[in-house]
Amino acid sequence: MHEPSSVTGVRKIALRTVLAGVVLNIGLAVIKGTAGTLGHSYALIADAIESATDACASLLLLFGLRFALQPADDNHPYGHGRAEALLTFVIVVLLVTAAAVIAVESIDRIRTPHRSPEPWTLLVLAAVIAVKELAFRHVSHQGESTRSTTLKADAWHHRSDAITSLAAFIGISIALWMGDGWETADDWAALVAAAVIVLNAYLIFRPALGELMDEQFHEDLVQDIREIATRHSSVIDTEKCFVRKAGVAHHVDLHLIVDGALSVRRGHEIAHQVKTELMMTLPEVSDVLIHVEPSD
User: Fold this and answer.
1) Does residue 143 share a domain with residue 266?
2) Which of 84, 96, 105, 121 can bridge 39 by disulfide, Cβ–Cβ 3.0-4.6 Å?
3) Do 145 and 188 lie in a common domain?
4) What are phi and psi for residue 73, nearest 5 degrees?
5) How many angstroms separate the CA atoms of 291 and 243, rounded?
6) Domain region containing 124
């Protein structure tokens, strides 16, 4: 069994996007970790931990996407795309674990006197925030255009990293501006970062769970499918329309309403014509199963 080349193309775009994210996160983890250590900022070190976790998460997503590239076969007629959703659960565990480590260390540092961060760490964070926000917008656009749960999750990794970097920037600024006695503002910022990571974990967990449970949250796609189907001159209306998502591929079950006086052969031809039009117009759709209903 073979999937449309358009779906394979979408997956290859996703692969390249995630791979670029891995390289970016590894580089930023090294930069932030080094700056945090030399600049005496635990908020920056916590930010580095998140980037390192994101890099690991992206590597897992990359593995999932490569597995999803395998074509459908007799044992997996709907393909292998749901490996993405399964690996998302592993990523959630990684994020929550990283948040717990950061929170515990932050609380310990809040209770222990230490020196303030170096002022130049703010320049590092400002650059990181700008880079991560740009990365979020790019990957988010790719995720929306391909309807990939993987890319949407990866985009939120970039956004959460930008937010935690902003929290670190604010914490360090307060510690430097207020002076003696405010050194722990940096550690409170790291604690905020831990909370943001947990929130991010939930945001990527929820859609992955919905995908595995065949939750119908594809309203925009369903609307497009109905609109395209009813363009056919012989289609009176559409009835049921269900979408099953597997990675970036979407499998559609559609009921068409046609004139009840038409022959079986003509109904069969209409179904094939509508299927062809849907798969040509919507590259994320990998297969369409159409049932023809006679009008009253």
Assistant:
1) no
2) 121
3) yes
4) -140, -175
5) 14
6) 5-212
